[in-house]
User: Fold these one by one.
Assistant:
Number 1:
Amino acid sequence: MAALNFFDPAFLEDPYPAYHQLRGEDPIHRHPLGFYVLTRYDDVAGFLRDPRFGKSGYQALFEARFGSGPDGA
């Protein structure tokens, strides 16, 4: 699949053909910029329910980058 360009006028006008193609060919698509595009309901629901990807899952990432907050949390 060609790189997904979210700023392409054709994509902005009608993104659904690109999403349809992703669902069929690459339902968990890693974009060249490093993020993922999930196109199936079950994958998205699983992602949103997984605590590793919620606020607590990102806490260590934020602390590593910015340090702990003023209250120590």
Number 2:
Amino acid sequence: MHPAFSVIFLTTLIGAGQGLFLALFTGQVYSSIQLIETQSASFYAIGSRIALVLLVLGLLSSFCHLGRPERAWRAATKWRTSWLSREVIVLPAVMGLVFLYGVFHWMGWTQPLFTMGAGQLPVDATLIIGVLGTLAAFALYVSTAMIYASVRFLQEWHSALTVSNFTFLGLASGFMLAAGYSAASGVDLVTFYGVWAVIFTVIGLLSRGAHLIRNARIKHKSNLQSAIGVRHQ
């Protein structure tokens, strides 16, 4: 496979943007239950802005490998059967939730709406948006990966390991970016995000390694000769 650079930019930028948002929300959850130090609202707001920029750049790069970009909207019409259509629908939803997550933090709309667990966990609007964004982000990981994993005649891709590769490598890049953002912001979360980045990187390495071992053992059901009906070597 020799994918277009726009496809590489698309998957890398969007995966990192999702991962950065998930890292920010993970930090907020940990701070809400007092496992790590609470950070300022601007930390989450600016981090969300960075994640949103990555998502937008990834979306823009997707137009570079379209033959007719003006017809891109039609990709969403086959959502019942096409994983590409589902990705096209879920991606704007993720972008919208990341935007709202950042705006609510920036505007200081973080007053608790109610509490959970005998009053131990105050729940505000950003936590609710974060949960919805987390679900949408994982749905986007799955949708993007299934574009390739659902192609049955490409046996190298047709595996659940394709989904795990996209997910864990995207999380690894996002948490690594969060560690760098923490260092640049002077926030004492470099170790927290860095450890998670290493964990996801190791899991991604194991997943990708298992994928390569699987692919090396594949017995192809057809080859170029059988596909075009030529028997001679």
Number 3:
Amino acid sequence: GLPGAECAIIEGGFIYVSNVNGDPRGKDAKGYIAKVSMDGKTADKWVDGLKAPKGLAISKGKMYVGDVDELVEIDIATAKIVTKHKAEGAGLLNDVAADAAGNIYTSDTGGGGIFKLSGGKIEKWASDPVLAGANGLLVEGDNLIVNTWGVLTGNGFETSALGRIVSVSLADKKV
């Protein structure tokens, strides 16, 4: 019953699941976040009207959602969208991760590289060629672990080179 389920995160005794609900690059506002009971028996639309939400991260009472070309910030307590941070030049925002300082990172699978939200401002943070097709993210200590899809050909999610897993220093962006 969750169309296009993409990512799940546990918070406050619930599982929150992003649902693309259509074209993963679409901007049709059919996407939503579901709030699911831990036994999986109850799944309600929690926040809707999103484009095609993917990755989820939680930091300081807020949920951050990669949503095509925006990083959406949701107040968990009120289930209200606080703001949508437009990521200029993004091809397809995907996964999201938070560091201990509250900085938020989102992968740009479609355009390659990583965007960072800090102090309310989002900007391209890393764009090394090795980050082509950046997809899954995990903050581990002082590093951002990035799983890349590979070099996209422009034909859907087809690649001309395989993806890899790399570690990027949060301090100096060294791969």
Number 4:
Amino acid sequence: NQNLMMIDGIRLNNATFRYGPNQYLNTIDPYIVNQMEVIRGAGSVLYGSDAMGGGVNVLTRDPQYSVTNWKTGAGLNGKWMSDDMQLTGRGEVALSNNNIAFLGGFTYNDFGDIVGGDTTGKQNPTGYQEYAADAKLKIKLNRKQELIMAYQYNRQDDVPRYDKVISGYSKYHFDPQIRQLGYLRLRSAYENKWFKQVALTGSFNQSDETRILQKENSEKITQENDLVNTYGVAVEVNSVPSDIWTFQSGVEFYYDKVNSDKLETEGSQTTELRGYYPDGA
């Protein structure tokens, strides 16, 4: 949680991110990624103390304006791996003219259990299903202003934590894990060297994670749910005061609202307990 992950400059991290290696970057559909920027080492100057270990900024694909009145397009992608390790389908549509550009798509993934090399064999359980949808719209308001609207949805069902299943749990699954992101960005260009480009962004990010746990030789099933709604506002300024000097500055504010609950079921009895995090924090 001290490596900051961002999507189009918007924080993916929130107040409930797990320490150490975690699964959150995996909730970004690879088919929407255009490029990834990586800061190796402390990025705290720009992004704050939770970027002490570094930063990753995932930049998603942009729809392109066309020089014709209207241009439409569509695409299909498929992927299949042997040993039932992966079955993927992706469909997308594009629509554009001189002032409007739209790109949207839907992805389905069915991941089977991983088959390791040498003596590892099939690692069971490691498979899960995933659904993802995305849409991005760009509008030229005038010669110097552009409005960008984007939405992303990702849902993963019955995702096992293999490290837990092989070390004392008969079941330790994320079911489901859902991520949603929507943002609105106004990008403006000016002749002023101190305000060469200014971007104002409002965003809503939701993380909905349910964990189902059952230890070996136990009838007790635990269900934990953490729902985090994150509201964000950011102003970013790019300045070019001279040919050899450029810098970036700005202000951002994020507010996390955490809802957390826990249920324990043993036989026919279900007990409601305090969640993993303080509910309403």
